[in-house]
Amino acid sequence: MEQERDQERSMDISLKDLSKQLEDFAKVRNWEKYHSPRNLLLAMVGEVGELSEIFQWRGEVDKGLPNWEESDKEHLGEELSDVLLYLIRLADICGIDLGDAAAKKILKNSIKYPEPKTKREFI
């Protein structure tokens, strides 16, 4: 039951909450001087590389990763989190509201790529 509550709490955390936690984490460790946009971008790219390594020799994988070991899924979650956290920190340092920017981008994409009028367009 406690694990379910922890899971629900983690699902409800906002980008702003994560941004504040990352800011506090960096301040306490005196890392702010290293958190330039360039450094954060390069760190994120490195994490994307680590994320890519997980999939490198697996070929195509099924949705939900049904044939993966729990330890592999946990590792994947850690690497996905690393990428997300660097992305949030980079956006924050650049003064970009990532949630707002993402919502605007989804709207822009919905205009650029409208829903198909008929099912034939899917074929």
From TrEMBL:
Domain of life: Eukaryota
Catalytic activity: dCTP + H2O = dCMP + diphosphate + H(+)
Keyword Lipoprotein: no
GO cellular component: cytosol
One Gene Ontology term of the molecular function aspect: dCTP diphosphatase activity
Enzyme Commission identifier(s): 3.6.1.12
Membrane-crossing segments per the record: none
InterPro entries, sorted: DCTPP
Cofactor(s) annotated in UniProt: Mg(2+)
One Pfam family in the UniProt entry: MazG-like
Keyword GTP-binding: no
Principal cellular location given in the protein's record: cytoplasm
Listed GO biological process terms: dCTP catabolic process; DNA protection
Keyword field: Cytoplasm, Hydrolase, Magnesium, Metal-binding
Subcellular localization: Cytoplasm, Cytosol
Subunit structure: Homotetramer.
UniProt xrefs under PANTHER family: DCTP PYROPHOSPHATASE 1, PTHR14552
Entry function: Hydrolyzes deoxynucleoside triphosphates (dNTPs) to the corresponding nucleoside monophosphates. Has a strong preference for dCTP and its analogs including 5-iodo-dCTP and 5-methyl-dCTP for which it may even have a higher efficiency. May protect DNA or RNA against the incorporation of these genotoxic nucleotide analogs through their catabolism.
Protein name as annotated: dCTP pyrophosphatase 1
Gene name per UniProt: LOC102583324
